[in-house]
């Protein structure tokens, strides 16, 4: 059986260079590849294009890369929790491409499936559709969206095996599965790495064929972005 496990995050990010395009899984602060992001910060790679649903917060997640001015362009859906992101965008320091959330997910999935493009009704008649091909199907207008092209996908799973099979837990099963296999190289970090063959096949969310490198991460903070508690009378 092919084993895709590597010793650590340093080995997992071998080949990363300035100017590359990365997909990064997660939703808010849930299920983000914390170890991979920390290693990108440590390496100081710059002029990056990052595809992610959001941009973390000021001192966590992609916010750490923004602090170091390592990101040149962000392709995102929701960016409302990061003051530094807002400052860089309004000042013109950061190129930002806002994408409808469902379209962003489908652009990842299309890349994963090998489809170059797809039609969607989302964004028709708005700035999102400017400069793009439109077409009518069954009396409804659609916009042609191209699949993403990226060098690396960095994803976070709860458990994985040495063959690259992944299991996600709870809402961490957000953009992560769609980004697996959607780039030239997919790097998965997991909380628990087990020998190949130990996972129940019926529980696997992403098969190892979509993953090139896998390693066991460490020191996960698992922050809560918006803590809401109920008052007890």
UniProtKB/TrEMBL annotation:
Keyword Cytoplasm listed: no
SMART domains to which the protein is assigned, alphabetical: CoA_trans (SM00882)
Coiled-coil residue spans: none
Keyword NAD: no
Organism: Arenibacter aquaticus
A single GO molecular function term of this UniProt record: CoA-transferase activity
Entry's family note: Belongs to the 3-oxoacid CoA-transferase subunit A family.
Keyword terms, alphabetized: Transferase
Protein name as it appears in the record: CoA transferase subunit A
């Amino acid at each position: 059986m092919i084993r895709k496990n590597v010793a650590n995050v340093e080995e997992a990010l071998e080949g990363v260079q300035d100017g590359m395009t990365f997909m990064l899984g997660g939703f808010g602060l849930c299920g983000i590849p914390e170890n991979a992001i920390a290693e990108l910060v440590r390496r100081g790679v710059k002029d990056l294009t990052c595809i992610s649903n959001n941009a973390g917060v000021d001192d966590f997640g992609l916010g750490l890369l923004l602090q170091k001015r390592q990101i040149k362009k962000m392709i995102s859906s929701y960016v409302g929790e990061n003051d530094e992101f807002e400052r860089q965008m309004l000042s013109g320091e950061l190129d930002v491409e806002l994408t409808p959330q469902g379209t962003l997910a489908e652009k990842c999935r299309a890349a994963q499936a090998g489809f170059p493009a797809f039609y969607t009704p989302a964004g028709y008649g708005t700035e999102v559709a400017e400069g793009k091909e439109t077409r009518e199907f069954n009396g409804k207008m659609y916009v042609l969206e191209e699949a993403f092209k990226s060098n690396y996908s960095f994803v976070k799973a709860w458990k994985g095996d040495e063959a690259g099979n992944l299991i996600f837990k709870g809402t961490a099963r957000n953009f992560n599965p769609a980004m697996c296999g959607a780039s030239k190289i997919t790097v998965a970090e997991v909380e628990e790495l087990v020998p190949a063959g130990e996972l129940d096949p019926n529980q696997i969310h992403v098969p190892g064929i979509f993953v090139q490198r896998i390693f066991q991460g460490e020191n996960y903070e698992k922050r809560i972005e918006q803590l809401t508690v109920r008052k007890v009378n």
